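Q: Structure tokens for this one, please.
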Amino acid sequence: MKTVRLTEETKNDILVNLLKRSPNQYGTYEAVVNEIIENVKQNKDQALFAYTEKFDKIALTPETFEVTKEEIEEAYTLVDEKLLDVIRKALVNIRSYHEKQRMNSWFNSTEDGTMLGQKVTPMERVGVYVPGGKAVYPSSVLMNVVPAKVAGVNEIIMATPCNAEGKVNPSVLVAAKEAGADRVFKMGGAQAIAALAYGTELVPKVDKIVGPGNIFVALAKKAVYGNVSIDSIAGPSEILVLADDTANPHFVAADLLSQAEHDEMASAILVTTSAELGKKVEEEIEGYLKKLSRTEIIRKSLDQFGYILVADSVEDAIDAANAIASEHLEIVMANPFEVMMKIRNAGAIFIGEYSSEPLGDYFAGPNHILPTNGTAKFFSPLSVDDFVKKSSIIYYSREALAKIHKDIEQFAKSEQLTAHANSIAVRFEDEE
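A: Here is the predicted structure, written as tokens:
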């Protein structure tokens, strides 16, 4: 990690460096992704099977492409009972949290015959992408499926890569069943996003695609946006820890590494008012690296996007946190709740030394699908809101419209939209 004195200049340099991780910077892959999407769009299942054989080294057929009831039952026999118990406990917390986000339709009426309102309707069908590859993510299954289920989505289609034997990781399948996914297809990468966006003979077209993935998945989601909705274009994982001299360096170092292990592009940043704490955290990191399993990935991540920023004041530290707008933000300071109130930009905020980031990843309840690459300045975590649509409701009686029809006509005529004005005026022709 690079230790840097926090100034306006160093802050801006870091922001520029972090933006290199954005999917928007990977234009060299766009042509490949667009070719895959167009092939699946034109040739449907034929293209999908060909890409699965090429990338996942398995020749699937229409009979083996969708996960069967028997495969799910087999998965339950392969998952440790203790893990299944943890998944079920986490589900209770995740479902309870997201149920509080549920919105209701509302209507207001007046005595003279108007009714205005908002009708909330769940989406008909959504696609959930669950990555494979470097790690297995049953937690992502829960975080994507549960809010859709709570929102009342009619059908949830899950896509996830299989291995060379045509098998999906059993913990992922069990999580899908427990959370309430309706169908699971063995497909990954840009080709899976294309199949969900446009539909094939076997894969139904969805209204929205959610879930994280690699750069090919991110660019594919970006490319199909507009034909379907998407949650966001997720970048590499990131964590920022705000800490002062009251923080435990052993804990802080562990939390920084919890995100650095995701991949080489992950970012881990400590912003502290204590240079001494920064030194101790560096020492702790070296100690951890001698015993953790993904050391090579962690070192590359820290070398490229790891920082210890030493701030002159708490206010400067908070300002840097708001500028970086991290996916995960931990506050380990003497007055963490006071600091939290000054945070404007963060995907998820963890308060105090016993609220480490993995608590949010797996168990507490809030969603771990979060805005990255500074997009926490204008995006929110995945929620029930992502799976509903809102329709405005307008009703006016003749009596109510009569009171204001000339106002509307005048407004329309001022914009030279005479047909608009006429649409109102014809209802009162008999009064002229």
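A few notes: The mean pLDDT is 93. The first strand starts at residue 2 and ends at 5.
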